[in-house]
Amino acid sequence: MASRATPLDGNAGRPITGRFVLLCFVGFFGVIFVANFFLVRAAVTSFGGVETESAYKAGLAFRQESEAAVAQAARHWQVSAHIGEGRVEVSAQDATGRPVTGAEAVVRFHHPTDRRYDVVLDPAPTGAGRWRADEHVPAGQWDLVIELNRDGERLFRSTNRVIVR
């Protein structure tokens, strides 16, 4: 009686050669490299997070920012903002309660995680110490940045987390 080869006795199928092992090895790492390429590409092209353009320049500007914050605190200005109904209204009073005059307002909504969604408003003066921008800001959580400038000098800056509904 002739014996038939079965998978259990090791004689069935083609033998494993060096060429087969090489092809498996190259195929395995080829799949890994292709997957890594697409994952890295997706990560790099979709990153919109907040980052510093130049850490060195930011470090140099730190002292200047600190001095500006001390000068701002000494002014004791009261600045408030109202967000609603498709508009943003900003009002500013000095330490004596009088409206701040001769200043320009800059209002920005910074998205907390993706600066591609940032919104810059151009508020127009509506009276002494009052500005209004009639622009729609999408609903969500934002960092509201208000700056008041006079003759190119920033006199006031505040950043507050707000929720727009």
Question: What topology emerges from the helices and strands here?
Answer:
Blueprint: H1 18-46, H2 55-75, E1 78-84, E2 87-93, E3 104-110, E4 119-121, E5 124-127, E6 130-133, E7 140-150, E8 153-164
Antiparallel strand pairs: 1-2, 2-6, 3-4, 3-7, 5-6, 7-8
Fraction of residues in β-strands = 25-35%
Our count of helices gives: 2
| CATH class value of the domain at 77-164 | Mainly Beta
Biggest sheet strand order reads 1-2-6-5
Binned, the helix content reads: 25-40%
**Helix/strand/pairing category:** alpha+beta
> How many strands?
8
Provide the succession of SSEs: HHEEEEEEEE
CATH topology of the domain at 77-164: Immunoglobulin-like
User: Rg to the nearest angstrom?
Assistant: 31 Å
Distance between the termini: 86 Å
Second-tier CATH architecture of the domain at 77-164: Sandwich
* Mean pLDDT figure: 89
Major sheet size, sense and barrel closure: 4 strands, antiparallel
The CATH superfamily of the domain at 77-164 is known as: Immunoglobulins
Outline the low-pLDDT stretches. none
